[in-house]
Prior knowledge:
Strand content: 5-15%
Number of helices: 24
Strand order of the largest sheet: 1-2-3-5-4
Amino acid sequence: MKSKLLLLCMLGFLCCDAQNHIIDSLEKLTQVQRNSELAGTYNELTWKYRGIDAKKALEYGNKAIQLGNKIGYLPAVAQAYNDIGIIFFDKEMYDSAIQLYNKSLQIRQKLNDNLGVAKCYNKIGIIYQRKAEFEKALDAQYKALQGFEEASYDFGTSNAVNNIAILHQNLGRFEQSIKYHNQALAIRKKINDRVGIVQSYNNIANVQLLQENFEDAKIYYYKAIEVAKAINYSEGLSAAYNNLGSIYSKQDSLNLAVKFNKQSLLIRQKMNDTKGIVSNNVNLSEIYIKQKNFDSALVLLKNTEEITKKNEIYKLELPNLYKSISTVYEELSKQTEALVYYKKYSGLKDTLFSEGIEKKFAEQETKYNTLKKEQLIQRQQNILNKNLLQIANQNFLLASSNLQLAEDSILLFSQNQTILQNQLDSSIKEEKITNLTKAGLQKELALQKQQAAIQQKNTTIIIVAGIGALLLLFGYGVFRKKQLEQKAVFAAEQAKQREQLTQAVIQAEEAERKRIASDLHDGVGQLFSAVKMNLSGLLERVSMPREEDQFLAEKTMALVDESCKEVRVISHKMMPNFLLKSGIASDIRSFIEKIDEHTLKINFESIGFKEQLEFNEEVILYRVIQELINNVIKHSQANQLDLMLEKNKQHIQVSVADNGKGFDYETAVAKGGLGLKNILVRVEYLKGSIEFLPNKPTGSLVKIMVPIA
């Protein structure tokens, strides 16, 4: 125990020493500082001396006021009036404190220091509340609340709301009081103001006590005690103990009532809290009355009455005090004295809690709520005006962007015209190919006519041979030989014409593919790249605050980028340049990699392709395989395809198997599909064979065999 006392003494000396060191440092600064800095130091010394030497505090406060007025530094003057007002408040000199707070308030209003104004109103409201001038107190607290809310100062807001709740509690407006106390408690929990939390717990419990909801009140008092002990908050702890004693007294648990009352009284005596001691004495007298110890109760109450007469701040305690004295005199059968104090009690209660003041409370609350709604509407209107201005600016930027896009669209239209002209030229070339095909057919018809003439000639020879059997036998060998030679020549010529025709068609088609691919890559592709570059530069220079505009711009940029990729993919499909560089196996693998495997998963295997084929053979075989894969994607509804490409010394074998819905070769031939005809023509040109078979259990299987020359 002695060691603890020694430790506390050492800590006290250390704190005092640190405080004195700070004061010494500040006083040394006053020797070298001037003007506003010196006035600020005077303010600091006023506050530091407040709890140590009130006379010194007042001296420095007055110095701050004189210097501030002299140099026109009003913030220091306002702060000095505020701090001196707190010193008078601590001394319970409330009229002087209000005068000083009002002077600070007037200066802060000139300086537009709204937060400082709100703090002044809050202190003024507390004094009026202690003086039981409830109407003035409520007006000041609502003004403080408005200022704190506008400044978003949660600590001040919670204090103003708490004081408004207590004023409603004093007037007996318990429902409104609980509402405001809960608002204050929520804010204090949000900012972790544990002293404020203790106060709110006690205040909510006080309202429950007045409504005789004793068990609910106990819950909140015990919560207040728990937090107050944790933070060593004596004032909150003593209030909870005192009121718990009052509850246990009303519940006739007198031993507990005395215990809690004494615990509270001990703390308040150490704090020299006269107002709290008055409240303890009134509650203790109620315990004495319940114990039938009327003489002790009367002595305690009369002593307490003497204390309350010295200061008007005890007005709120007087009604209960007079009522208790009246009750004691009545128990002592002193009816005259009992009646005198009951009249004091009744008259003071009517003065403090008249119907008029309750009406004014309601009016003040309505006025505050109306003003708050008007301010909310004004803030919303300001936000709306700001949003409209932003929309106007964004519309202007959007119009500029649309103008640039329109110019790009005109350029793109011009390029499209060029593409259409190229397509027209392509149509003309296709017509030439058709004419070439007709010429080939005409040659074939001429050959057929020659064959008919030969047949006619052969018939003539047979007739002549019939007349001259001997000559026929002799010339038969010669004739047969010539006939076979002519057929061989005809067949060779026919095959050559057909091969030349097919080769011409394929070459023309590949040439046209190459030209269109080049036009797409070098023309449209370059144009889209330029559009992408210009659009990217525009988006970097133009600010788009709205998420919708930014999303539209990013989507447009993505479409242009996708268009660039699509042109490049189409041009590569039309004429893949890699056919000139790598073998067909590598080319097919590159083609497969561009197919979305979520749409169609392709398993590809190649064997024996160490050397490249002739260019025409590679291109034709690549086109066949490309067409087969595209047919699977378009028609088979398959999700898996197995592709085998195998080469040996004699031939090349291609196998394409899918797991789709199957393929009817006869039906497809009857429909006359162009894709299937292209496949058959190309395989025939390569002198190969093709088979269309079902792939068990589902799908189709295509086998191609191409001989190697």
